[in-house]
Each structure stands twice: as structure tokens, then as C-alpha cells.
Amino acid sequence: MSGDSVDPMIHEDALPGEERKLSPQPDWEPRYPGSGRLKDKVAIVTGADSGIGRAVAALYAREGADIAIFYLCEHEDAEKTKAIIEAEGRRAILVPGDLGDPEFAPKAVQKVIDTFGRLDILVNNAGEQHPDEDIRDISDEQLRRTFQTNIYAMFYLVQAARAHLNKGAAIVNCTSVTMYKGSEQLLDYSATKGAITAFTRSLSANLVEQGIRVNAVAPGPIWTPLNPFGGKAPEEIPEFGKDTPMGRPGQPNEVAPAFLFLACEDASYMTGQVLHPNGGVIVNG
Predict the structure, then answer these.
(1) I need a surface site. Which of 44, 71, 136, 231 has the fewest CB within 10 A?
(2) Can you tell me which residues the record assigns to a coiled coil (predicted)?
(3) Among candidates 19, 28, 119, which has minimal Cα distance to 71?
(4) pTM for the whole thing?
């Protein structure tokens, strides 16, 4: 890592986690046939090796897009996502690396351009979280690392992608229900999600005259590797998502359609907005 950046915290816990080891397996499969809403588009999806990112990549591919899979180190999961995309008849490339490193984004985006020749959609989905009961337990390393992955990386990627995004392009960021209702054990994570929402609204105003739309999705509790592999206390996993009005966690393929809607022309009159697939939690959105 360069400068004051902190190396990925993949040794502190099991994060980012392997979807292939998760039981039960998350539902990533698109639920309906494609209709060409992203025909011949090119999308970067960060964190597309598993979870919401995989479901988004699969749905985008079904709708006609080629996908660049940005991920940290879960190579087997990433290879499966690549195979999923190719099974839909679309092209995919794997781009491993640390999104929190400012030197990664320019090289990674250039690889996308060299491979596909264009970029139409940037999905900033990757994130990390580390639960703490007491704010005094949040180390400086953890604090900086969480902000690097969750919000600094979005700045780096947008900066690198900006020259390649033309009128009609879309940026979709992943914030969280914790931005709106808080989380007593995820103080640093929730703070980054607040920053992401503010970033989304501000960037939308910055790019609207260029015809580039910027929106966000704020998922509630979704069954992905993020929580079972260190993002939540083990004893809390059996109750994960049961406090929502629907009484269960969501599945990645229940969130992916929100990312599709915001990326395609169906949302042509929306920018600076946030969608809330969260199991019925009413937020001041």
C-alpha cells in the first residue's frame, strides 16, 4: 500500500469470506429472462466475487452487459462469477486487487478499457465491516481501513473512470440501512455509509450536466459472506435479519434488481436517489 494506507484486514478475521463455504448458499440467480436492458454495455462491479456483487453481475450479464469483476482475494468465488457471466453469453474479466489502494484504480480501469474498449456503468459495491461493542475498541488501523475500502475506494474509482464515462453512463453506489437507522456495533461502518450517501447526492449534482446519473442502493440485512465470516458476532448469526418487518434476511437476487433499475434507461429521470431493499424497514430516505 502507498502513503498512509493500511493493508487489507484479511488476517484479523475471516473477511472478506468465501461464498462457496457459506451454508445455506445465498440466492444469486436472476429470477426472470433478460430483456436487453443493458445490451452491449460494459460494467465494472466491485466485490462481484460473491454476495450482492455476484447477483448484480449475473443480472447485468443476463440483460446483455459485459462485466469486469473487481475483487480482493477470493479467487475461486471470482472464477465462479466469471463462469456465471459467460454462461449468459457475455464476456467477463477478473481484476483482483485492493480497492483501498489509490494506485489500484487507474490500472484496473485501464485494463477494462483495453479489454472492452468502453465503460458505461460503475457499480461501487465492495465494502467491509468489523463489529465492536465499545468505540474504544476500534483501532486506528481498523478505522482507516474501513474508510479506505468503503468510501475512499469510491473516490479513487470514479476519478479513474471519469474520463471514460460519457452521456448516458450510470454510477450506482452501495450504501446501507445502517446509514439511516444506525448500528450500535458498526460505528465506523455506519459512518462510511453516511459518507457514501452524501457522496452519491453530491456527485449526482456534479455530473448531471454531463448526462451521467449517480444513484445508490441501501440494502438491509442480506445473506452474504460479509456477516458470517467476521462482520457480525457469531452468536448473532442465527437471528440475522429476523428483526425486519419481513422477519428474515434478504437474498442477493432480491437486491440486484434495484442495481439494474438504476443502471438502465428505466431510471433515466432519477439521479441522486437511494433505493431501499431492506425487508420493510421504513427510513427517512
Answers:
(1) 136
(2) none
(3) 19
(4) 0.91
